[in-house]
Design goal:
By secondary structure, this protein is α+β, with helices and mostly antiparallel strands. The protein has a single domain, classed as Alpha-ketoglutarate-dependent dioxygenase AlkB-like (Jelly Rolls, Sandwich). The strands form three sheets. The chain has a seven-stranded antiparallel beta sheet with strand order 1-2-11-8-13-6-5. Strands 7-12-9-10 form a four-stranded antiparallel beta sheet. Strands 3-4 form a two-stranded antiparallel sheet. A hairpin with a 2-residue loop joins strand 3 and strand 4.
């Protein structure tokens, strides 16, 4: 995975045989990030979901949306996709969105299911809205733990290999936090 930019704006968090994770806190300008957040919040068909966990059906603690790149996507997703592809040259064909409404919304530690992404291609995650903490934790001992505050307008890129060796999640927070959104570009297997 080669990013199209270098310098102080790019932080290499992991770069070894377990994969590569990079973070660019100012990938988009503050103004562009604010506009993208507001437009997506209004234009996306957000869904609440339920799933089986802990032997019962529970509400997923966030709102979600999913699009195939080949389908019509609401603004500004095509522009964000083009910008992501400038920096992360991957044939992204799917985008998933998560809206964390407040500090109570979260996603448990997980890795992307490797049968739902194409080997060798990275995942590119853009963040908008409030800054939220992401915890990235190695699956092996001794644990390697990275706590990363994802800022609005930031880009986090995780190689395919990181899904084998790490879990990532957005934990609930105790202090009040405004809404936060993630826009995640992936290369999915073709149906």
């Amino acid at each position: 995975m080669q990013l199209g930019f270098f310098g102080e704006n790019l932080r290499r968090l992991v770069d070894d045989d377990t994969g590569r994770i990079t973070y660019a806190p100012h990938f988009l300008s503050e103004r562009d990030a604010e506009r993208a957040f507001e437009t997506l919040r209004e234009n996306v068909g957000w869904r609440s979901e339920r799933r089986w966990m802990y032997e019962r059906e529970v509400d997923v603690p966030r709102l979600t949306a999913h699009y195939r790149i080949a389908d019509a996507m609401p603004a500004p997703l095509p522009v964000l996709l083009a910008r992501a592809r400038e920096e992360v040259p991957a044939p992204f064909n799917a985008v998933g969105l998560n809206l964390y409404r407040d500090e109570k919304d979260s996603v448990a530690p997980h890795n992307d299911h490797r049968d739902e992404i194409v080997r060798g291609h990275p995942i590119a995650l853009l963040s908008f809205g409030a800054t939220r903490r992401m915890t990235i934790r190695s699956k092996t001992r001794p644990p390697r733990i990275l706590d990363l505050d994802l800022e609005p307008g930031s880009l986090l890129v995780m190689s395919y290999e990181t899904q084998v060796h790490y879990d990532h999640g957005i934990p609930k927070q105790r202090r009040k936090i405004g809404p936060r959104m993630s826009v995640v570009f992936r290369v999915r297997p073709e149906p």
